[in-house]
Amino acid sequence: MSRKPSMPQVERDERTPQIARGAAFTVEVDGRALSAHDGESVLGVIWAAGIRCLRRTASKKEPRGFFCGMGTCFDCLVQVDDRHNVRACLEPARPGMRIATRAKSAG
Amino acid sequence: MQAEVAIIGGGPAGMSAAVAASECSAQVVLVDEYAHMGGQFFKRAADQFRLQSQQLSAEHRAGETLRQRVAASGVEVLSSTLVWSAFGKTLMLYRDGKSFPLQAAAIVLATGACDRPVAFPGWTLPGVMTAGGAQTLSRTQWVKPGHRVLIAGAGPFVMPVAQQVLRTGAEIVAIVEATRPAEWWRHAGSMWGQWPRFSEAFGYWRNLRHVPVLYGHKILRAFGTDGVEAVEITAVDRAWRAVPGTLKRYEVDAVATAYGFLPNTEAADGCGCELLWDPHGQAWFVKHDAGMATSVPGVYAAGEITGIAGSAVAMEEGRIAGISAAEYLKKIKPAEAEQRRRPSVVERAHLMRFAGALNECFGPRPGLWEGLEDATTVCRCEEVTAGDVRSCVRAGCATMKGIKDWTRAGMGPCQGRICRSLIAQLVAQESSTDPATVQRPRIRPPFKPVPFDAMALSE
User: Fold this and answer.
1) Which one of A34, A67, A86 would you mutate to disrupt binding with B, by most B Cβ within 10 Å of its Cβ?
2) What percent of chain B shows pLDDT beyond 90?
3) Disulfide check for B416: which of A104, B150, B191, B420 has CB 3.0–4.6 Å away?
4) Which positions 48-87 of A are in contact with B (Cβ < 8 Å)?
5) pLDDT score of B72
6) How many other C-beta atoms are found inside a 10 Å radius of the C-beta of residue B189?
7) How far is B52 from chain A (nearest CA, A)?
8) CB of A95 within 8 Å of any CB in chain B?
9) Between B33, B135, B226, which is nearest A63 by CB?
């Protein structure tokens, strides 16, 4: 898309130093502060931090991660601030977001 | 809200349809579930990423060109907006916590496809994902799906996925392809004249030359406790049935599966469009005529929901559908519509030969579903196993509806989008019938979950 005329803030991530990312900020995931960049999805932030279990199933308590990454499977549902059942794969990360996975609770 | 032509889906087909209908002076509203148009094929990192040109995907430029044409055409684009129901040609939309109607005079369905889910022991472990998911994570986020990734599937889609995963710095321990090159030559005749496809394939081959490829193998099971730690693959015969004694094990922390695609037909179902069973794709696609008209007057279809054929075909079909929709609204005369459609009809026919050959060559074979262990989960949401489904069929309940009522399979948040095709295959096996004869479940709104208060308080 069109590049903005002002000098953009560019940040890099130590895991992928070759990539110029958007402005850095932190989000909270299950009480833990994680670094994120403007333009990333909630799933991108979570997966980059090495968090893989997003929920435990109701009866067998099996771990589930994300599966389709395109809004079809609803396996990556998280709570974002006061919004429940948000698809992490489609939700843009924003500064100060409080994100809760369902890794501890059943369901 | 009103539209002369409402387009559902902002991928290659939807964007092309929007431009074409708008060129015929129709007032167009394009509804897209994602934040950025492009669908799956043209998905890209957000603008905040400052990627260098060599970091952009091969299709990046074509995607940007099409997006700019939509932007310049005066089409109204509703992004991050879900179509959750259709009452005649009134679509119910959900956006940002609110639900509202869109009254359309004509509709173009361009809802695309998602990866075909494949069940095997351990497929529910975190780290096992669809190839599309691995591609999204690597291309739009530049995040490694895992440090050691195995990609298993059939067909050319593994190549762009593998290439993008490599670019994030992840290691690909193996590409596991179910077919063998010896099976491909039978289709060489259909490939004649499709030169751009060859140069594309050569580019991938060069970039992936250091990645081990195992032909005639498939994934058998994944192991791990809190996430995938290892996988076993096996050699397969022509029907993709496992050959005993050929197991290989890999330590991995991510697995991507790429066994083809399934069309997203919920909205087509909701509009009352007739679907047809395709034996090569083992899926139901939207029935359409040469002008991309569905069985419902004023409703058109384009792209993967009419048959898995790739983005080039999707764009031609989008143009055809957009022009046909404008003709339906009498924006242009039939003769002019015919003339405008002709180049796309010719090009589509040429491209379809290639797409048809790919589907025949790499389409799923029976071994993909046979031998599923009873303990293996098929419905991820409601934790229903293959054994649960089989016992249901053996007890005399061999319909999708019956299995849903008995086991809850398909009643979770994915509403059966992931498990539906797997269950249909199990039912067919267990009752020794063709999956084509297994009655499809009735699709009811909402097409995807929408908060109840938003539905109740619809404008």
Assistant:
1) A67
2) 89
3) B420
4) 48, 52-54, 57-60, 62-75, 77, 85
5) 97
6) 10
7) 8
8) no
9) B226
Q: How many CB atoms lie within 10 A of CB B287?
A: 15
Provide the pLDDT confidence category of residue B39 given band limits of 50, 70 and 90: very high
pLDDT band at B439 (very low <50, low <70, confident <90, very high): confident
pLDDT of the residue at A4: 46
Omega into B446 within 30° of 0, i.e. cis?
yes
The token pair at B117 is 């889910």
For residue A22, the chain B residue with the least C-alpha distance is: B48
pLDDT tens, B189-239?
A: 877 777 777 778 888 888 888 999 999 999 999 999 999 999 999 999 999
Q: How many CA atoms lie within 13 A of B346 on its CB side?
A: 5
Name the minimum distance, in Å, from the CA of B188 to any CA of chain A.
33
**Res A104: pLDDT:** 80
Distance CA B320, CA B13 (A): 10
A44 vs B contacts (CB less than 8 Å): 137, 140-141, 143
Residues of B404-417 as b/e, b for ≥16 C-beta within 10 angstroms?
Answer: beebebbebbbbbb
pTM to 2 decimals? 0.95
Pairing between β-strand B148-153 and β-strand B254-258 as defined by DSSP bridges:
parallel
ipTM of the complex: 0.95
Residues 27-46 of A with CB under 8 A from B: 37-41, 43-44
